[in-house]
Automatic annotation (TrEMBL):
Keywords: Antibiotic, Antimicrobial, Disulfide bond, Glycoprotein, Immunity, Innate immunity, Secreted, Signal. PANTHER family: BACTERICIDAL PERMEABILITY-INCREASING BPI PROTEIN-RELATED, BACTERICIDAL PERMEABILITY-INCREASING PROTEIN. Disulfide bonds join C151-C190. One of its GO terms (molecular function) is lipid binding. Gene3D superfamilies: Bactericidal permeability-increasing protein, domain 1 (3.15.10.10), Bactericidal permeability-increasing protein, domain 2 (3.15.20.10). Residues 24-247 form the Lipid-binding serum glycoprotein N-terminal domain. InterPro entries: Bactericidal_perm-incr_a/b_dom, BPI/LBP, BPI/LBP/Plunc, Lipid-bd_serum_glycop_C, Lipid-bd_serum_glycop_N. This is Bactericidal permeability-increasing protein. It is found in: Secreted. The lineage of its organism: Eukaryota, Metazoa, Chordata, Craniata, Vertebrata. It comes from Plecoglossus altivelis altivelis.
Length: 471
């Protein structure tokens, strides 16, 4: 239950922002949350400590009887029937019915001024009901906090069995003991329910509202709108935006509205829009992380094409003449953020960049040879690993034009095959190695995703998954 309360929480930051990520919690998910929560609540209620009680009553025909109840402990408690329901547009309601508890303690009585008796007793209560509403709000850190409100409890039928002492006394004062214990227990249950709900808050603080990715980026998953609560599910809108670590600058584009389909077979659905992935491109490009020096050592030894002036001199003779027998180095980098597009069953990326070629002098200084402008088209496969979204790219085609030459004019097209090979064997593997590490999805504590399915739809990726909490 505590796991899902996090996802119900409202963290109102900027209501005008469209969410980049959407989350849907279904009835199946709520049911799993209820099972977790009830185990925690039952454990909490078993800690009920009933204080010693004492009192007196006039009991015919013996007159005033003074009694005391001591050493009382809960020996059994069950919550066999419970329902966690959604109140559309309002919140969450928890109802517990047909609960029971058993209590053991000691009794002592005194009557006729000088006669004393004692023994033990067992109290059993059936038909215990508890109903509470759970309020959800943001704390001072922008994370969710929960509290119990409007708690009502009712104790059903009770039976008392006395052990030891004079049996004829039992029926004389059992009704007084029954009433005293009922009043004491009734005062204890709702505060413990409130404590059990409040105890969830430290766990809720594990929500990765700001998830660290690497030294360049972090993702913000704060809520940007109130949860839409219906009778069957909860729809949440999260910011879902990448930022440079410690420097939150908005990209020159914004999220557009999108809606999740009416699927309910999984516990949880996560929709990740192209805005989220494109904000990642903006962040990494701005950080200068989308650049790579390619050297000959990164080319497979079996390749006949080498990064040296001899190979390139076969296509650009002036290179071999001016820089004979030198190794070369290429700087591949983006000049603007790459654009990722989601279409049904298809993920594509368009990247605009440059390739700068250098000759490496014997003293290791670099002599620029030329700069090429490059447009690359890449297809991608995305998948879920653990609680991360990962991917792999395949280069489709490149188009290159001459940006600047330090060795005179030449036909750029003659180099297409060389650079296509360089990108495929040196650049794309580096990119895929990073994508394989994945980027964190919204998560809470020790949360695992199971039975996960991923669909690429128009404008967003849809992840349908069940959830398993291991702690």
């Amino acid at each position: 239950m505590s796991a899902w309360l996090t996802l119900l929480a409202l963290i109102p930051l900027t209501l005008a922002i469209n969410p980049g990520v959407k989350v849907k919690l279904t009835e199946k998910g709520l049911e799993y949350g209820r099972e977790i929560g009830m185990a925690s609540l039952q454990k909490k209620l078993k800690t009920i400590k009933v204080p010693d009680l004492s009192g007196s009553a006039k009991v015919a025909p013996i007159g005033k009887v003074t009694y005391s109840l001591t050493g009382m402990q809960i020996v059994n408690l069950g919550l066999p029937k419970s329902v966690l329901g959604l109140v559309p547009g309002t919140g969450v309601n928890l109802s517990i019915g047909n609960a029971f508890l058993n209590l053991h303690g000691n009794w002592r009585v005194r009557y006729l001024k000088f006669i004393k008796d004692s023994g033990s007793f067992d109290l059993g209560i059936k038909g215990l009901t508890i109903t509470t509403s759970i309020a959800i709000k943001s704390d001072e850190t922008g994370r969710p906090s929960v509290s119990s409100i409007n708690c009502v409890t009712s104790l059903g039928s009770a039976t008392i069995k006395f052990h030891g002492g004079a049996s004829w006394l039992y029926n004389l004062f059992s009704s007084y003991i029954d009433k005293a214990l009922r009043n004491s227990l009734q005062k204890k249950i709702c505060p413990l329910v409130a404590d059990a709900v409040t105890d969830m808050n430290p766990h809720l603080k594990t929500l990765n509202v700001l998830a660290k990715v690497d030294k360049y980026a972090e993702i913000e998953y704060s809520m940007v709108e109130s949860p839409a609560i219906s009778k069957s599910c909860i729809d949440l809108g999260l910011k879902g935006e990448f930022y440079n670590v410690g420097a939150h600058q908005e990209p020159p584009f914004s999220a557009t509205p999108f809606s999740l389909p009416p699927q309910i077979s999984n516990m949880l659905y996560i929709g990740i829009s192209s805005f989220t992935t494109n904000s990642a491109g903006f962040v990494y490009n701005k950080a200068g992380a989308l650049s790579l020096y390619v050297t000959d050592g990164m080319i497979p030894p079996s390749s006949p094409i080498r990064l040296n002036t001899r190979t390139f001199g076969a296509f650009i003779p002036q290179i071999a003449k001016r820089f004979p027998g030198l190794m070369m180095k290429l700087l591949v980098k983006t000049v603007q953020e790459p654009i990722i597009t989601f279409e049904p069953n298809n993920v594509t990326l368009q990247a605009t960049g440059t390739v700068t070629a250098y000759a490496i002098q014997p003293n290791t200084t670099l002599s620029p040879l030329f700069v090429l402008n490059m447009e690359a088209s890449v297809s991608a496969r995305v998948y879920v690993t653990g609680v991360k979204l990962a991917g792999a790219m395949t280069l489709n085609k490149i188009q290159m034009t001459l940006g600047k030459s330090y060795v005179g004019d030449f036909q750029v097209k003659s180099l297409d095959n060389i650079f296509l090979m360089v990108l495929k064997v040196a650049v794309i593997p580096k990119v895929n190695a990073r994508l394989e590490k994945g980027y964190p999805l919204p998560s809470l504590g020790k949360m695992n995703l199971v039975n996960t399915q991923l669909q690429v739809l128009k404008g967003y990726i849809l992840i349908g998954t069940d959830v398993l909490f291991t702690g």
